[in-house]
Write a structure and sequence with these properties.
- By secondary structure, this protein is α/β, with parallel strands linked by helices.
- It has 14 helices and 25 strands.
- The protein is globular.
- The model has no long low-confidence stretch (mean pLDDT 97).
Length: 480
């Protein structure tokens, strides 16, 4: 079995312990064994990033562009290979896997350009003879903790801006999906990047993550993951004065009004709730439907959901791949049972599937007759499970949509410009979709939410500089 090592200070470093990477479509398929870093290795990575920080902060925009452009170009060239690897280890279908890889390449291309576009401001002081300059400088050493559901895109949208703006990186991927992370860093390792600027430490969050978050040598933490862990990271890192950026999930509503195009609404719900096996923080897990279209919508969505082909992620006919692992599968099934106990009606799916290959397969679940106070409508499930809530009219639908501790993404299906405009203004979410699935965003604009979904500056696009740079104001007296 091939062993894959951590990358620290420009070298591939062996570990005392390795963890097998299991294919969720076929649990007999082991992709490889990946190093599990301990506290000592993590501190070595931090020290390497700290030692490289000053030199990299003063690198030229052209040097940063060249490196980021090299990374993007190789990602594009290997999109089929990397997409298949991603599908094999995470369970996305092949089109979704390749699509995610291409997005990672687009992100690196975008931030290659940002390295050249970063500029400051000049202005006149209120005092005679004094000039004012406003410039941006890198934060320093950034610890990055990424989730398993987007194993190359989310690392890309953290690493690329960090490098573009002159920061050094310690990258800890999720233990369930180390292969995509390792492949990305292997490309980075050949880009001409100086030693220590990017370091990969694979391993458990309770060791690697906690060491990063608590270290005084780490200037900022960018985290995507669960609410509970995000809150702990904020408390620890912010207490010592580190910058903190958190993306922690959602309970995203899709409102369907009586005047909606039924086919558009069903497609938005199907794509948003179930594709990528529902394992997206932007998934449409609450479908809020008004009276006049409710019955027709449920009937058509039930038929479409039942027709979804669940199977091996790399099978060309598969529409919905496996759940990531046994623990997540059991959690999904328990949420379905909870909804039924509380009065919901399971109209489609919701059961484990035993297919030819042993994997973590689940038939997408659609649950009707739910109310806003049910557990299924309060907590993030993170699987192919959607609940339907009946609303009397637009006003009630808007109230229900906003009745959540989360505020990442929201959507509305309507042909009314009046309601679309009002929903965009009043929806308490960081991203709003009109006649589009709640899942699916562009790489060149801000990503992030409100309320319990996000904390700190936005990710992606030019707004990423708000986290990865510090503003400096300089005054110069030219004399009389």
């Amino acid at each position: 079995m091939t062993k894959f090592n951590n990358f620290i200070n420009g070298e591939w470093i062996p570990a005392d312990r390795y963890i097998p990477n299991i294919n969720p479509s076929d649990i007999s398929d082991v992709i490889g064994e990946y190093a599990s870093a301990d506290e000592v290795a993590t501190r070595e990575a931090i020290a390497a990033a700290r030692a490289a920080a000053e030199s990299w902060a003063h690198s030229t925009p052209q040097e940063r562009f060249n490196i980021l452009d090299f990374i993007a170009t190789e990602i594009f060239a290997r999109a089929d290979e990397l997409g298949e690897l991603l599908s094999r280890e995470e369970g996305k279908t092949l089109p979704e896997g390749k699509g995610e890889v291409l997005r990672a390449g687009q992100i690196f291309k975008f931030f290659a350009g940002e390295a050249l576009r970063l500029s400051g401001e000049t202005g006149a002081s209120v005092r005679p003879g004094v000039d004012v300059e406003i410039t941006r400088e890198p934060v320093g050493v950034i610890g990055m903790i990424t989730p398993w559901n987007f194993p190359i895109a989310i690392p890309a949208w953290k690493i690329a801006p960090a490098l573009a703006y002159g920061n050094t990186v310690i990258f800890k991927p999720a233990e369930l999906v180390p292969a995509s992370a390792w492949s990305l860093v292997e490309i980075i390792s050949r880009s001409g990047l100086p030693r220590g600027v990017v370091n990969l430490v694979m391993g458990p969050g309770r060791v690697v993550g906690e060491t990063l978050v608590s270290s005084e040598q780490v200037d900022g933490i960018s985290f995507t993951g669960s609410v509970a862990i995000g809150h702990r990271i904020r408390a620890t890192a912010a207490a010592r004065g580190a910058r903190v950026q958190l993306e922690m999930g959602g309970k995203n509503p899709l409102v369907v009004l009586d005047d909606a195009d039924l086919d558009v609404a069903v497609n938005c719900a199907l794509q948003g709730a179930f594709y990528s096996t529902g394992q997206r923080c932007t998934a449409s897990s609450r479908l809020i439907v008004t009276e006049g279209i409710y019955e027709a919508f449920v009937e058509k969505l039930t038929a479409a959901t039942a027709a979804l082909k669940v199977g091996d992620a790399r099978d060309a006919t598969t529409q919905i791949g496996p759940v990531i692992d046994e623990k997540q599968l059991q959690s999904n099934l328990e949420y379905v049972e909870s909804a039924i106990r509380e009065g919901g009606t399971l109209v489609c799916g919701g059961q484990r599937l035993d297919l030819e290959k042993r994997g973590y397969y689940m038939q997408p679940a659609l649950i009707t007759d739910t109310t806003p106070d049910m557990r299924i409508n309060r907590e993030e499930v993170f699987g192919p499970v959607a609940s339907v809530i009946r609303a009397a009219d637009y006003d009630e639908a808007l109230t229900v949509a906003n009745d959540t501790e989360f505020g990442l993404s929201s959507g509305i299906c309507t042909t009314s410009l009046k309601y679309a405009r009002d929903f965009k203004r009043k929806s308490q979410a960081g991203m709003v979709m009109v006649n589009l699935p709640t899942a699916g965003v562009d790489y060149h604009v801000p990503f992030g939410g409100r309320k319990g979904s996000s904390y700190g500056p936005r990710e992606q696009g030019a707004y990423a500089r708000e986290f990865y740079t510090i503003v400096k104001t300089s005054y110069v007296w030219a004399g009389e």
